[in-house]
Amino acid sequence: MTIPKVLFVCLGNICRSPTAEAVFKARAKAAGLEVHIDSAGTSGWHVNEKPDPRSIEAGQARGYSFTGQSSRKVIRADFGNFDYILAMDADNLSELSDMCPDNHKNKLALFLDYAPKGSTREVPDPYYGGEDGFDIVLDLIERASDGLIKDILA
Ligand code: 4NP
User: Fold this and answer.
1) 142 lies in which domain range?
2) Is 30 in contact with 61 (CB distance < 8 Å)?
């Protein structure tokens, strides 16, 4: 099997998609799944910044590492380079869809499509909210990560 490449996308690439990168990396490793993982933002507002300290704190409390991450913007080459391009919310997905060449549109999805049915389909933006927003993000991302791992291994 060629190593699958997964790109997680949110708006700023400092809260949700870096969390997805950190969580999926740890859980894929624990499952023995070799993957190439990256994350990016549809905006360039925080380019070269490290993940938000609130995301790092909440994630580290669950044992996840954000080492080496810095924000970047989605580029056109990403659509050819990655196998899964997973958006955190419907706005992110719509932006990706506008940019994405038709022959790669099948790679686009909401990340929470891989979470068990019945839960919300979008990871809510925690940036302007309270502290518990970061734990909600982690809960949702952990569930979707396990679903995606199962899907890739199937
Ligand atoms: P993210 O969160 O998309 O999960 O990284 C945000 C980060 C920054 C902003 C919005 C959302 N912002 O408006 O600067």
Assistant:
1) 5-153
2) no
**Nearest ligand 1 atom, CA 11:** 3
**Separation CA 117–CA 41 (nearest Å):** 26
With b for 16 or more beta-carbon neighbours within 10 A and e for fewer, the 56-85 pattern comes to bebbeeeebebeebebbbbeeebbeebebb
Distance 108 CA to ligand 1 centre (A): 20
Q: Based on the residue annotation, tell me whether 100 is a catalytic residue of this protein.
A: no
CATH number for position 122: 3.40.50.2300
Task: Note the pLDDT of residue 119.
Answer: 73
- The answer on pLDDT for 125 being more than 80 is yes
Tell whether ligand 1 has an atom less than 6 A from the beta carbon of residue 125: yes
Q: Is 23 in the pocket of ligand 1 (CB under 6 A)?
A: no
For the Cβ of 45 lying below 6 angstroms from any atom of ligand 1, the answer is yes
pTM of the model: 0.98
How many domains does the chain fold into? 1
Q: Are 9 and 84 in contact (CB under 8 A)?
A: no
pLDDT per residue as tens digits for the range 130-147? 889 999 999 999 999 999
